[in-house]
Amino acid sequence: MWAKYKIPLLTIFAVLFIDQFIKIYIKLNYPIGIVAKASNWCMLLFTENAGMAFGFEFGGGYGKLILSLFRIIACVGGAFYIIHIVKKSEHAGFVFAVSLILAGAIGNILDSMFYGLLFGQSNDMQTAQFLPAGGGYAKFLYGHVVDMFYFPIINGHFPNWLPIWGGEEFQFFRPIFNFADFSISLGVGIIIVFQKRFGKQHLKPIKNETALKTESENQIAPNNNEFNLPH
Question: Is 147 a catalytic residue?
Answer without folding.
Answer: yes
